[in-house]
Description:
Porphobilinogen_deaminase_C_sf; Double Stranded RNA Binding Domain; 11 helices; 3 domains; alpha/beta; D-Maltodextrin-Binding Protein, domain 2; 5-stranded mixed sheet; porphyrin biosynthesis
Amino acid sequence: MLGKILIGSRDSDLAMWQSKWVAEQLRKHNPSLPVVINGMKTKGDNILDVALAKIGDKGLFTKELEHALLAGRISLAVHSMKDLPTELPGGLIIGAICEREYPGDVLIAKNGEKLNDLKAGARIGTSSLRRRAQLLNYRPDFKMLDIRGNLTTRLRKLKELDLDAVVLAYAGIKRMGFEHLISDYIPFNICLPAVGQGAIGVELRANDCATMDVISAIDHKITRIAIEAERSFMKRLEGGCQVPIGALGRVENGHLTLEGIVADLHGTQAVRQSISGPAEKAEHLGEKLAEMLLEQGAGEILTRARQEFGIDDGE
Length: 315
């Protein structure tokens, strides 16, 4: 019998919103069970003057939470699924993947323009190599600037740095109540999202059956299938959170469609494919799609991207 649930969370506004949402869902299913949230800083939160990719992309926003989980200081950790590496520490599992919000990216422009209406040479802020690569593939004239910080900080930098626009995930914008700022929804044919984008994941100890029983109620099967396919795709490509890889899985009537892209940092070279099959073959389809892109040169593109940007894949 559980005495209470201790949730570990990054202490950013968005991360705390997500953890409070998970806590609320758990209370709905277990009204008498106390749920407490512990906020903490991660490596990615503490280093704000270096591009994400140069820091090292394994567990950038998750490792401190996982250490607390393994030490028994918290019952579970709540993450944005896009931040979770495909390889988890021994003894930990993803117990629930919650229903996904719309996974795409959005444009927030200084003067409210649509993507296609931005002037030639428009200065666009993003912390994502994936967004940078795909947007340059679409519009080579864009000037991409790296911006770091939480969502509110990046929105503020739109004015502080006199940018023409910033690109962010819709899910975070909606959850923080900034939908009114959206200028344009960037179509998937221009920019595929990050693996897992838009979904909240709950990580726990593999041997904690009591907590697993509690959180199983918030696991969303369709979302889990789609994201397992995306994560299998990224794992086969040996890609981390900070490399220019995009993917989107969609499930309908037991059928999974998975799209994936790998692009270079300048947008001059990109390989993109899709694959479809039975939903129960999600991981296999992810691996197969990765193999298709590797045959088209995805491995060489990723190697060059890591070398050029100084990406550190170490721990």
